[in-house]
Amino acid sequence: MNMRSVWALLLWPSLLTVSMPLDCKEEQGSLSGCTSISQEKLLDRVIHHAELIYRVSEESCSLFEEMFLPFPLQLQSSQAGYACITKALPMPSSKSEIQQISDKWLLHSVLMLVQSWIEPLVYLQTTMDRYDHAPDMLLNKTKWVSDKLISLEQGVVVLIKKMLDEGMLATTYSEQGLFQSDVQPEMLESVMRDYTLLSCFKKDAHKMETFLKLLKCRQTDKYNCP
Amino acid sequence: IMYSLPLCHCLSAPLEPHFTECISREQETFRCWWSPGSYHNLSSPGALRVFYLKKDSPTSEWKECPEYIHSNRECFFDVNHTSVWIPYCMQLRGENVTYFNEDDCFTVENIVRPDPPVSLSWTLLNISPSGLSYDVMVNWEPPPSADVDAGWMRIEYEIQYRERNTTNWEALEMQPHTQQTIYGLHIGKDYEVHIRCRMVAFTKFGEFSDSIFIEVTEIPTKESTIPFTLVLVLGIVGILILIMLIVITQQHRLMMVLLPPVPAPKIKGIDSELLKKGKLDELNFILTGGGMGGLPTYAPDFYQDEPWVEFIEVDGEDGDSGEREDNRASDTQRLLGLPHPVSHHMNMGCSNAISFPDDDSGRASCYNPDLPEQDTLMLMATLLPGQPEEEEASFDVEERAPASSERSLVQAQTGGPQTWVNTDFYAQVSNVMPSGGVVLSPGQQLRIQESTSATEEETQKGKEDEDSKETEEQKQKELQFQLLVVDPEGSGYTTESNVRQISTPPSSGEGYQTIHPQPVETKPAATMEDNQSPYILPDSPQSQFFSPVADYTVVQELDSHHSLLLNPPPNQSPPPCLPQHPLKAPMPVGYITPDLLGNLSP
Q1: Disordered: where is this region (chain B) (predicted)?
Q2: Which of A213, B39, B132, B237 is deepest in the core (most CB within 10 A)?
Q3: ipTM more than 0.90?
């Protein structure tokens, strides 16, 4: 079952090659040209992206766990949540909290998350390359996730522009400082750090996915949605 | 790294109070259960307290369980106390003891086990043709507690089924839809089906739903097929009977359609028996009207009752059999569909020459009159041997009949006195030269252009038939040409053209004529009426004409001089009873079969 889903996932990237409106960037960096796709469709694509990203990250995480994490340390995995780099970001954390925030804030939260993770994933890629026995599948997955995250960011930016009529946003959230400041002193082993990184990212990917889906619910049916 | 179990103090060491499980059903609340372990004295309610730490900030603290359910040893966290994506850690505290385990930390989304789906049902999709297996579609609803519609949770389902009273479940592929098909169930066996679900890309399944049972007994499928096959068979039989009836009643018509009659030599009034070998005399007798009224009136109608027989009729249409001045085209003309000096019979080709009792037969065999005239003329010119003097066969086409206005006039000015135009396929031997050459007279259509061809055309154009005929005849008188033909005495024989008249037909008065290389000036003043074969006597400018010359005649015998003795022309010695063949000659009145020829040769 696991292998099957892994294989299926390897084929999924091909589905996403055209799903993001990358051509928007070609017009001198401004995103004003992206009016050809409807907002609904764009949101669907963004959601689909986020779902896939979550799935691949989850599989990368389990792979990593199997390969590199000694069993005793696995028990501590849940504690790693505390050390996530994005914990400082103000985020709703329950359905009721989400119900209280606006569409705009929801979208911005997603954007914050996405932009926060672009650099750490790149970093993760470089460290994992230094591993002795990193399986190609794992490396491919993390690479894929890293690439797709960038597409997701673009999509969200366009979505913000479409939905909220805001101009281009400066990427204010991807800060190196955010990443570095939260390294726990006790997690010196790069393995642990990488694993923490992966599991934190997995959590945030799920968060992104959920936020976006709730946003879609709001678009279609305002009254029954959180 | 091998995990070495710590020395199992399980048996000896007491089991500390611990949490057995924490579960969230819908990612909005969760509950945790604990157990006192082997510390039974702590099993009473309140002996152990639950504390949790929600790591949402660096300054978070341990808090006590918001809601106890002591009967279950359960701690329930409601919506207000549940946060997703934020790590929780659980602790059990006794009097002065804290039992804490690292693996009691979690995030809520990771402990979600959705409720089982509800409203299971199944429908039969189909049964295999063999009647041994069938497919079933199972439908259900997502768990009501899971907010799937809003997108708060994404759920996938797993169906499991087994035969009743067996122990092993078959599991199908996980998928997120609320229906799935089970293939290949066996008829007569009962099946049990249940479903469980989990969050997509998570690891923990919920409980199984209640089972439903699928029972498909043997459906009497044969009954439904028996009437169907019966109906099919009866229908086919009925159709066959219908076809047979149609065939039988419409036999004649079907025969016409399926087996169109092959044109066979059937001459009206003549028994086809006569056409067979050895009965030539009788045939000739009949055809020449021997003794009786003439062909059309005489002959018993042999084929009257066979409507599908096509007749080649000797043409009695206009009954002017006496009119040699004919409206009939020569044989060749008819064949080629050329226009001929016919006043009112401008039917070209088929319609003129041949008539059929049946309208729509035989037309296809006719020559297409639409062929350009020039092609035919060229054809003729090339077929006929050219003049020795003539280097090239050039031809003129002259407008003869008013009907064929399309004829273009091509004029070829040649130096030679004669040009071959529009010649017949056959030519009459009009004279035999002492040197052995045979003089032929051209067909009726031969236009021999003198230098005045141009004027001729103009004059000829648009003229009436009679007029044009006269001018033609006048010109034909001046016609001179020769053909070199093999010496009849030496070898071979001339074409069996109806060598008419030439010499003194009336004078001979006999049933034959001789071909002699005689000057033709003694020709009788033939009437201008001419039929198809107006052969022009080459030598004499006064070449007359003649008694209507048929194109063919029967060679009866050879005389002592090895000349061909021919039948008298019908109008030369006109026994009243001689039938004027309407056809007048292009029709082979008589023909020589090989054995007859044997008789003829000396």
Answers
A1: 449-477, 490-517, 563-582
A2: A213
A3: no
